[in-house]
Amino acid sequence: MPSAFAQDALLDDARARLSRRDAAGAYALLADAETRRAGDARFDYLLGVAALDAGHVTRAIFALERVVQVRPEDTLARAELGRAYLAAGDADAAREQLRMARGGLLPEEASAAISRVIGLIDQVAPAAGPQWSGYLEIGAAYDSNVNSATQQGEFAIPAFGGILFQTSPENRQRHDLVLATAGGVNAETALSPSWKLVGAANVRANVDRVVHDMNAVFVDVTAGLRHTAGTQSRVIALQNNTAWVGGRRYRTANGASAQWQSQFSAGAQVSVFAQWSRQNYSGQAERDTDRLLLGMGAARQFGGAGPLSYGSAYVVQERARATAFPSFGHRGAGLRLGAEQRLGPGVVTFAEWQYEQRRYGGTEPFFDLARRDRQNDLAAGLRWSVEPRWQVIAQARRALAASNVVLYDYSRSVFQITAHRSFQ
């Protein structure tokens, strides 16, 4: 029986041949040892890659299947097994293995490459029946301002001759511990090689330890069509967003959205998007608005270990439907910039900044001026992939809202840790 040193030398020789693109030589070398080495995941992986590149697809599948049986977390082996199934003409099996590989610990550019291959498979051989994915989250947070309220205890109202008014304690900044939960599902089914029916539903709930009147539930539902042609995709969808605060329905928004996206290269992506919605506030018809948002975005992956950066810019208009209350409508513009950097296996750090300015219509009641707001939102944190379907996210967020109307001037800090489980 060969010694351990000889066995390692065999694998080293096979790797060297593969690096020289001598797949046939590597396969011939490893195939002779298969009867005594089968079951060794390192050996089977190299044998599978060499067999596949040398054109022995069935042998490659057998070898790579042995790897994922003993090492189900091996994303590289799953990616190669997906490639082998694709070469064998089994699109469904290839799609399944590639999706599992994409959910594991891979460099960003490898994950993006796998997504593109899956997209091509979906165009050539759409999956039979509906496909779905989902997630569940649970987390805990400290929120320094759960009601996004001013810290001012008193302020002057010009309409009443500058008389000082006291704000009640419940209308001032309040802090609390928060239990945050969320869940969602995405589904799609192919109508043709290039058209898909898509849908999504998400539910998010925040439960405060003390300030129960700020407990909130948010439900988002989307249904639409996606068209894919080469590296470009287009989506048009109907949307419903409903929010409950303090156990009562607060706002409902119904509308439509559209997006065009193009993958210009392996690491560069751009998009253009639009959204229109009709917002209705329960019991406060004077606040009802029609909202239109237009924007564009871009993302870029810099090299194998470089950062992923992204950004978007947009303009927004909310038109008050009640002509007697123009101050509830506004025009605004915003900018969002962010970056992610992989620190090590399964650990990613991220940071994001968003800025928005708003100019409201009409005159703010009691203050004899048109409201102007500027808001900065900052976020930073770490995302740790414990295993392919589990992540732990720790983050800090800071919001600074500056307004010429003291009631809307506030700051807020949130520190949160979340466990995320994905399903597919």
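That was protein one. Protein two is written in the same sequence-then-structure order:
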Amino acid sequence: MGRFARAGAMVGALVLTASLALTGCGDDQKKPAFVANGQSADPSATASATASVTTPDTTSGSPQPDAPPLRVSPADGAKGRPVSTEISAEIPGGGKVSEVVLTAANGKAVAGRMRRDGSSWVPSAPLKYGTRYTATVTGTGTGGQTHRGTSTFTTMAKPKSMIGSGLYLFDGNTYGVAMPVVAEFSPGIPKKDRAAVQRRMFVQTDPPQPGAWHWVDNGTQAYYRAPEYWKPGTTISVRLALAGIPLSNGRYGNVDRSATAKIGRKLEMKVDNATKQMSVYENDALIRTLKVSLGKKSTPSSSGTMVVMEKKEHTVFDTRDEPDPRNRYVTEIDFAQRITWGGEYIHAAPWSEGVQGRQNVSHGCVNVSMANGRWLFGKTLVGDPVTVKGTEQRLAPGNGWTAWNMSWSQFVAGSALPVPDGGAGPAF
């Protein structure tokens, strides 16, 4: 019986813990490692050092005498700017930025691209600490005239107080259709900072699908998902561009993290306590029905929509630290698939095969036979959805990747930024 604990090794030496006690049959093991693959560039960024939006200059290519210079931000001479700084400009009388060129003091150009709404230009990688940069911005006024402006600014020294972050997505992996993008923070992001942080968390999908972010109450996690499960075959590219982002508590983001992953075929597992059976669907067609034994009344399984978070062909459940001595044991387990942080798994349980399909005897896990456990383990991916219904306990928010255990309207209510009807599109 595991507790609700998510302590684990985060790449970059981040360790997170939580203390909400929930019943589960598995051990209180470490979380899967976060992605920190050394990629700091935006996977969707172009190789160009200029904005991806260009507007032809209908003049000779030089500002007209009556076209005042535009105002660039950061302002000329600004010092101590965060390495997360974006470039923006104000065109006198209104207009549209058409080009941004950013160069470091050594003359090296910085790649980046314009946000889709035109509000700013985002470097494809964090700027360097303690470095001088020059931004040259070109824009077109409402009357067609060309405006230009230049600003030279200096970034801040590397701060001492940083916030840890992680990304539960591994570059190049294939996941199930319910795989949320999971960002994690230690300590949590204060509510007043979440909008600024969310603006720096970029997700793009191919084919395009709308989506939104949802923050858990304590700000330690944010999930990104679409209104429905991802389309099979989708490519998801993520950049958490948080290096150097300033927070109100005096901390700064530690690193940029990025990953590009694929979504595989559609597979769903649906467990009904009334029948004590699991129905397995592949591409919406029922392919097998399995007998199960769920948690007994004193240690019930959670009802709700969960996601396979990790898979272990062989493991050991060690629950000797449980407060209730009746729930302490050490047991070797085969074909284990974690679905909650609280210790609930789908796994083979040969000792309960005689009552599977008729009686609940587990410590909260979904027990299946050895043969069915082996078969199911070979079919599933991390990110496959598991829905359990009819038990005595409801799934607690945050006990696992619970992004799908709420309606779309409930999900978008947890966004720190407004979400258009149907979901937000990509930033670029």
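The helical segments are 194-198, 370-379, 408-412. Keep this in mind for the problem set.
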